[in-house]
Amino acid sequence: MIVRSRSPLRLGLAGGGTDISPYCDQYGGCVLNATINMYAHCTIELHSPEKGISFVAQDIDVTYHSPLLNYLELEGELLLHKAVYNRIVSQFNDNKPLAVTVYTHSEAPPGSGLGSSSTMVVTIISAYQKLLNLPLDEYEIARMAYNIERIDCQLSGGKQDQYATTFGGFNFMEFYEGERVLVNPLRIRQPIINELESQLMLYFTGVSRSSAQIIEDQVKTTTSTDKKPLEAMHDVKKFAFEMKERLLHSDICGMSDLLQESWNAKKATSESIATPHINLIEDRALTSGAKSLKISGAGGGGFMMLFVDPIHRLSVEESLSDLDGKIQPFHFTWQGTQSWKA
């Protein structure tokens, strides 16, 4: 049997960082995000036991093989692939090993700021769900993905990515203590989406980054004696509510202004967010006609969103042309994770 799945990557429009514990546990977090037509892909082949277990991450050219076991040690490469396998076997297959070959690839590199790691976990879970006919709804898939990353693998990060890719579309998400999450789908009229797509540029900075230090800084904001980072986090949360209202009322110019305010507040939560390279990109883009910009994800690198009037788009592209980054074409998408039999 062969099954496949794909899950969309997401743009964090506002509120990113407030979905990280302990901030969301103590104050409640909220995030506005939207999925785009860039995907993480998975194919699972179920075969005879003597072939054992294989994971093939095609985009990073890493392969792992093991004889048939019901538990894989969480060490070395392809940690997430192993952790998903362990969860599926222990929770849904009576602890009996599965003879599978799992192929994966993502259309964005790790550290892109588009939630690529969490999206990959969700798409692997989604493929297993189809393979074993598992009765999992969107909340259960997202929660499992979060627990695999944060508990099983001890990787730092927030909660929005798993829910964004599972549900798909434009969503306003609320995060509370005790893993309580509310996903509020937003119905956005097509003319608003058209105008958003005409004004938004997605630019890969040329640098993939580790978010660990930034997230560690943001975790410390709730206990630090310096109240400025915590106040900045409160501002980030406030802007998420305001951005949602601007979006629902077709106020694209207002969204652009808020994006810049949100970016300035986000930079105040950690010194690692805006590097000299990112500052150079920001200076060039704003000087050549961009109205506002913001890094998608934790910061330090990855993809940058820019609001640009279409008549100035080519000028902005030209101002960035000699740098190592590149413009990434995209469209918003409404569907979350999908799986099917080949």
From TrEMBL:
Gene3D superfamilies, per the entry: 3.30.230.120
Look up the signal peptide feature and give its range.
none
Among Pfam families, the record links this protein to:
GHMP_kinases_N (PF00288)
Keyword entries, A-Z: ATP-binding, Kinase, Nucleotide-binding, Transferase
| Coiled-coil stretches noted in the UniProt entry, renumbered to this chain | none
GO MF term (any one):
ATP binding
Some GO term, biological process aspect, for this entry: which one? Answer: GDP-L-fucose salvage
Query: In what residue span(s) does the GHMP kinase N-terminal domain sit?
Result: 83-169
Which named protein is this?
Dehydrogenase
Instruction: Provide the species name.
Output: Photobacterium swingsii
